[in-house]
Design goal:
Blueprint (H helix, E strand, L loop, with lengths): L1 E5 L2 E6 L6 E7 L4 E4 L7 H11 L3 E5 L5 H4 L2 H7 L4 E5 L35 E3 L4 E2 L2 E5 L8 E5 L4 E5 L2 E2 L5 E2 L9 H4 L4 H13 L4 E4 L5 E2 L2 H22 L1
């Protein structure tokens, strides 16, 4: 496990050389908020990181319900039974393996590893704009229908799940990076994901923490570049359809 700190954000990376999967600890005055739960074997490393920081994990927020973001959730809940779990209202269904779409949603299929044996269920269902400690929940659908990002109001650090990736070069969810194509392959809807990328840009994040890849400080230019590329790709696809 790789452990990197940037201000109030600690990035924990599992399998950093082969298939990097990130989760994040956000430091508050007396406690820690965990964002995502990485891989099934990650619980020990997450608990050790919290012990090293010297503060308890009091809540777990999920950016979305894919298996590489909820993998250690059951084990963490067993070790921390009083910790509350938060997920968006929409992705709460994915936690139980339900891939069905709502009538008003684009009909592209939900992709990626949706959990089949996850026992833990959310204690709190999040909506856009909800406040959790120092964080604000931002609805950023696209990778999944209920994907969320979390903005630290103290310093504008933004943890975005798979709304962006930074490994193999920065990319908006759904737009293929040949060196690490997996987030794109697991994306539900590219057009919706692009709209969410615009939304994240509007918050002018000081730090971008993605589910896969290193954190980016002052990422505005990189975000603009990724959005411009995604726009070109999307327009090219639309032109071919016409």
């Amino acid at each position: 496990m790789r452990f990197v700190r940037k201000n109030t954000v600690y990035q924990l990376t599992f399998l950093p050389r082969f298939f990097p999967v990130n989760c994040y600890l956000i430091e508050e005055d007396e406690e820690l908020t965990l964002i995502d739960a990485a891989l099934p074997y990650s619980a020990k490393g997450i608990l050790k990181a919290a012990e090293d920081i010297g503060k308890p994990i009091t809540r777990i927020l999920l950016t979305h319900a894919h298996e590489d973001h909820v993998g250690a959730l059951d084990a963490l809940k067993q070790n921390l039974p009083n910790v509350s779990v938060y997920v968006s209202e929409r992705d709460n269904r994915l936690m139980s393996g339900d891939r069905s779409l709502d009538p008003n949603e684009p009909s592209t299929p939900i992709r990626g590893g949706v959990p089949k044996k996850l026992q833990t269920r959310a204690d709190v269902l999040l909506k856009d704009g909800d406040r959790i400690g120092s964080l604000i929940a931002i609805a950023t659908p696209g990778h999944t229908p209920g994907s969320m990002s979390f903005l630290d109001t103290r310093n504008n650090a933004c943890i975005v799940g798979d709304a962006f990736q930074t490994i193999g070069g920065i990319a908006v969810s759904g737009h293929l990076q040949p060196l690490f194509p997996f987030p794109a392959m697991a994306t539900w809807n590219k057009e919706v994901a692009l709209k969410s990328a615009y939304k994240i840009r509007e918050y002018r994040p000081s730090l971008l923490g993605a589910g896969h890849g290193n954190m980016l400080e002052q990422p505005g230019t990189a975000i603009d570049r990724a959005i411009a590329k995604a726009e070109r790709n999307f327009k090219s696809i639309q032109a071919r359809k016409e």
